[in-house]
Design goal:
Elements lengths: L24 H4 L11 E2 L6 H6 L4 E5 L2 E6 L8 E8 L2 E8 L13 E5 L2 E6 L2 E8 L2 E8 L14 E4 L2 E6 L2 H4 L2 E8 L2 E8 L13 E5 L2 E6 L8 E8 L2 E8 L13 E5 L2 E6 L7 E8 L2 E8 L19 E5 L2 E6 L2 E7 L5 E7 L11 E5 L2 E6 L2 H4 L2 E6 L2 E6 L20 E2 L2 E4 L1 E7 L1 H5 L8 E8 L6 E7 L2 E6 L7 E7 L9 E7 L2 E7 L6 E5 L12 E3 L3 E3 L2 E3 L2 E5 L4 E5 L2 E4 L6 E5 L7 E6 L14 E6 L11 E6 L4 E5 L7 E6 L7 E6 L5 E6 L12 E6 L7 E7 L9 E4 L2 E5 L5 E5 L7 E6 L16 E3 L7 E5 L3 E7 L9
Parallel strand pairs: 36-40
Antiparallel strand pairs: 1-2, 2-3, 3-4, 4-5, 6-7, 7-8, 8-9, 10-11, 11-12, 12-13, 14-15, 15-16, 16-17, 18-19, 19-20, 20-21, 22-23, 23-24, 24-25, 26-27, 27-28, 28-29, 30-31, 31-59, 32-62, 33-34, 34-35, 35-36, 37-38, 38-39, 39-41, 42-45, 43-44, 44-46, 46-47, 48-49, 49-50, 50-51, 52-53, 53-54, ...
């Protein structure tokens, strides 16, 4: 974002939002300077956890410092970054980590600061830092003796002077609790707990916290079937007593009142980001009749939640200082300027320009300084936008997290390890992180699919790697010293996506992307890479975009006949029901639509949606179909088999399902076309099976495919793509990495090797990690990609494997 002013031209001043009644206006005259320790911010609500973990999910302003938590790191420990003005610029001057730092430790998911004290939450406890001679120094941890590790202890913090509140909203079956600590003799000691007198399951009491003197304000957004509540307590030496329970007028189920809370010099503000589907902020003031609602803000341009599409979430966070109140939302920030009489004079709206990424999800302000978080910016790694006197003066971010590149020589798998990665019978030839694959060091990109290509003229080999918004072409001829040759950005007008799939025909690569808007199918002539044998990566334009589809999940190619089958198309164009959109690509730069096929008896929507497929000239035991063009589709709910010899008149041969279907994802034929091995991506996540499952189909009769068996791994990871070469099956099983399976006995597969590309966490179900592999190079090298990890060049060393060079 370039520097810009929050003060719009008179012609674009936004209408004033409905504000508070006369009861509140005199109190506004007291001002809005945040009390000590209150200039901190957090995200509330059901989607809080992943956002709070990103850079910008936790922001604190304290004594000239901008302190940003980054607790969601995976390949490195969580961090807290300290930023200060140096030479007129905001720069990172220090980074804090836990004393027992390790990957995925959650350090930085909650941060609170008051004066020279800082508390930081992590998976292993609550860490204390003290400021000494201008630097933050580790000072141990707060005791958690007697606490339940499943209480979400430390998911929210508030700190003021010698008092600290630690939220545990998952305590007591979600009723929630808050732990009270006091500093005595230089040490923090737990002196009591705070609960609602009639707390119920799922109240989530402790989700939001604020302190002002001897008063605590605590949110319980789950109370009353999600209507929510907030409570004011008076804190004493060893506990607290409730003064009032607050509820906004006109709440309905799911408003999540109490997701955010704040004290502002005698006033209480409570956010309800789901109120009326778009969000609201409620104000309360104390009078002779106790605490009464004094006003309510609602967004003038709010967008209500519609089904699974989120609303504006107005009030997801808020801050106030020097005659202005800042309110965060999923659509940006609203700044309410107050006149000398305390009335709202105007409202300024800032959507964050090109920042996007949840800009406005967090906001904090103190004096003339404010910081707004965009925790989803840069594809989820997060940014923080700094305002001074209403002007944007800096955009802060962290360095990308990744493993160091590994190049130069093969790393053998010895005693179950190759470097930091666990393995068996698979060596590491090289590794390139995603930032290197990006060509320009872009933050937040993820790798996904891959394919391979060998230049028939030069013999050079290339890994073709899909990334969030681009494709990376890597020369892997010398697999121990790979080099990024070129980059092809996504189609102009498209958006970045988790899905990008590539396949080759001859000397061209064909690229599609799902949920990417008007992307189409990019076609690129790979011989253009020949002339670039040294130097930095070259950014190319595609040779052609086939625009008869918009987004698509995958593209399948029968290289024997030059037909491409675009599957899972949506968002515009000829979708073919999400089934096979068939394109004649024999003249690659003059592709011709050839027909559709879909089987409406399959797929979740009843349209015949195909998630992935393998299309071949059949040469198996069913003589009726030998020599025909056959596609075997993994259609979400079933296996679908079609004769596509005449693409304009493709016909169904059969379809079949199997026990415990969750999501029929992808599969591959054995070389004799007798067996088809299929993965189900979601059966592990859904709890239908307890270990990675591969379904074994007997397709010797294409008209009547039968489930002949199931193969269960020793791991519980979810499975993604698999491919077969000879008697070996190569599975990309997300958190468990690449697994090598011997299928010499088709119904009795045996794992004979693996390389765990995800050396952190456990091999539990989930969709992060190894996405795909390419085992078809004749020298036996295997490409593996997926997630934040990047590109691995691997060499299986399984005894008996024979490759032809």
């Amino acid at each position: 974002m370039t520097a810009s002013s929050l003060r719009p031209n008179p012609g674009v001043i936004m209408p004033v939002i409905r504000w508070m009644n006369a009861l509140l206006l005199p109190l506004l005259l007291l001002g809005f300077a945040a009390p000590p320790g209150a200039a901190q911010t957090f995200i509330g609500g059901e989607e809080a956890a992943p956002l709070m973990a990103a850079f910008g999910g936790q922001i604190v302003l304290s004594e000239g410092q901008i302190i940003v938590g980054e607790g969601g790191n995976t390949v490195r420990p969580g961090m807290v970054h300290i930023h200060e003005r140096v030479g007129g610029e905001w720069v990172r001057t220090a980074t804090l980590m836990a004393e027992d730092a390790e990957m995925m430790d959650g350090f930085g998911t909650a941060v609170a600061v008051s004066g020279g004290e800082m508390l930081v939450a992590g998976n292993h406890g609550l860490y204390r830092f003290t400021r000494q001679d201008g630097e933050w120094v580790a000072a141990g941890r707060l005791s958690e003796e007697g606490l339940d590790g499943d209480d979400a202890f430390g998911s929210e913090l508030a700190l003021s002077g010698d008092v600290a509140l630690v939220g545990a909203p998952a305590a007591a079956s979600g009723a929630g609790a808050v732990h009270l600590f006091r500093r005595s003799g230089g040490e923090w000691v737990r002196v009591g707990g705070i609960t609602l007198p009639d707390g119920q399951e799922n109240d989530r009491f402790g989700t939001a916290l604020a302190l002002d003197g001897d008063h605590a304000l605590i949110g319980a957004p789950g109370r009353g079937d999600g209507n929510g509540a907030a409570a004011i307590f008076r804190v004493h030496d060893d506990g607290a007593e409730m003064v009032a329970e607050l509820q906004g007028a006109g709440l309905s189920g799911g408003d999540r009142f109490g997701s955010t809370v704040a004290f502002l010099h005698g006033l209480v503000f409570v956010g309800a980001p789901e109120s009326a589907g778009a969000g609201a902020v409620f104000a309360f003031a104390e009078s002779g009749n106790g605490w009464q609602q004094a006003g309510r803000w609602t967004p003038f341009d709010g967008v209500p939640r519609q089904g699974r599409r989120p609303g504006s979430a107005f009030g997801v966070d808020m801050a106030a200082t020097d005659g202005a109140v800042w309110v965060g939302s999923s659509q940006g920030i609203y700044v309410f300027e107050l006149d000398e009489e305390g009335a709202v004079s105007r409202v300024v709206r800032d959507r964050g320009g090109e920042i996007g990424g949840g800009f406005g999800s967090t906001v904090t302000a103190h004096g003339t300084l404010a910081a707004v978080g965009a925790p989803r910016a840069d594809f989820g790694v997060g940014q923080v936008v700094v305002y001074e006197n209403g002007e944007v003066t800096a955009v802060l971010g962290s360095q990308p997290e990744e493993f160091d590149r590994v190049v130069g020589s093969e790393v053998s798998c010895v005693d179950g390890r190759a470097g930091v990665w666990e393995c068996s019978e698979v060596n590491l030839l090289s590794y390139l992180p995603v930032t290197e694959l990006s060509g320009d060091g872009s933050r937040g990109l993820r790798s996904n699919d891959n394919w391979g290509w060998q230049d028939p003229e030069t013999g050079r080999k290339y890994a073709l790697v899909g990334l969030t918004d681009r494709s990376s072409f890597v020369d892997v001829t010398d697999a121990e010293n790979p080099r990024v040759v070129g980059i092809l950005m996504m189609t102009e007008g498209a958006n970045g996506s988790a899905w990008r799939d590539l396949k080759t025909f001859g000397n061209h690569v064909f690229i599609v992307s799902d949920a990417a808007g008007p992307h189409g199918m990019q076609i690129f002539d790979l011989t253009r890479l020949r002339e670039h044998t040294s130097g930095p990566p070259v950014f190319f334009d595609e040779d052609l975009v086939y625009d008869r589809i918009a987004s698509a999940h995958n593209v399948v190619i029968n290289t024997d006949i030059g037909h491409a089958y675009i599957v899972g198309a949506g968002g515009g164009g000829e979708t073919c029901g999400g089934g096979l959109h068939i394109v004649d690509i024999n003249d690659p730069l003059n592709p011709v639509f050839a027909g559709c096929f879909s089987d409406p008896e399959t797929g979740r929507a009843g349209t015949g949606y195909t998630h992935d497929a393998q299309c071949v000239i059949y040469d198996g035991p069913d003589t009726e179909w030998v020599g025909r063009a056959i596609c075997l589709g993994s259609n979400e709910t079933a296996l679908s088999i079609a004769d596509v010899t005449d693409p304009a008149n493709a016909v169904k041969i059969s379809s079949a399902t199997y026990p415990n279907v969750a999501y029929s994802h992808q599969g591959w034929l054995t070389e004799d076309h007798r067996w088809f091995y299929m993965n189900d991506e979601l059966d592990e996540i859904a709890g239908l099976v307890d270990r990675t499952r591969t379904i074994i189909w007997d397709v010797s009769d294409l008209s009547d495919p039968q489930v002949a068996g199931e193969f269960f791994s020793s791991e519980a990871a979810s499975d993604h793509n698999l491919y077969i070469v000879g008697n070996l099956m190569y599975q990309s099983n997300y958190k468990a990495g690449l697994r090598v399976i011997d299928i010499t006995e088709p119904l009795e597969p045996v794992e004979v090797g693996f390389f765990d590309t995800v050396p952190y966490g456990d091999n539990s179900p989930g969709t992060s990690g190894a996405w795909s592999n390419y085992p078809f190079f004749l020298d036996g090298t295997v490409i593996s990609t997926g997630g934040a990890e990047g590109l691995f060049m691997l060499r299986p060393t399984v005894g008996g494997v024979v490759f032809q060079d």
